[in-house]
Give the backbone structure.
Amino acid sequence: MRIESPSLFKPLPRPEMREVEPPQLLEPEAVELNPTPEADFGQMVKEIIQQVSDAQNRAGELAQRFATGEPVDEHTLILAMERANLAFQLTLHVRNKVLEAYQEIMRLQV
Amino acid sequence: MGLISTMKVSASGLSAERLRMDIIADNLANANSTRSATGEVYRRKVAILEPIPPSPAMPGGVRVVGIATDITPPRMVYQPGHPDADANGYVTYPNVDIVHEMVDLITASRAYEANLTAYNAAKSMFLRTLDIGRV
């Protein structure tokens, strides 16, 4: 017996596309380091802490906007919070390392 | 900050899939709309995605360049009693195919999950990196 393929399996017509204006997507914030070879360590630490603070402020602002009912994408908020969290953890590690080194030096026998 | 930029790439994928999901939801919601404010019947919408050219700040990613409308002919259903029926008794329904939309929905949902998995993998790599040298 031959099974005829019904019209269900006929190829779909290729949709023709018409362009409309692109939507505005909230791009994740671009945080970039600008390494300058002669910058001193204190200055560098200050800049990095400023960036961490910026990330946290951004997350806080998004959270506030989300809580007050503004149209903020949920994932944008969560990602900003994650980003602030990771940046803070990295800073904390650097701080711990610096403190450890300092204490190591202070323990030196004179 | 290499892993952070990997996360940004995954984040762009999440945004794009979220938007695709919005569009599919719109298509499904309007599958049975027979009129609109413009007078023309609703047409199926499709998101057009393109890769972001790699730059030092962002090593790739995806972005939505636009939302296009599918101009395949609308569905004509014979319903003479319908208020929106034409002179021959046919009602113009949107060219939305529910089965097609469901497949797209599953694709968008799984693609979102895939991006999320990549994001979480990058995050756990980052956290592992912080463990280097810890005693």
The mean pLDDT of chain B is 90. The two ends of chain B are 24 Å apart (CA to CA).
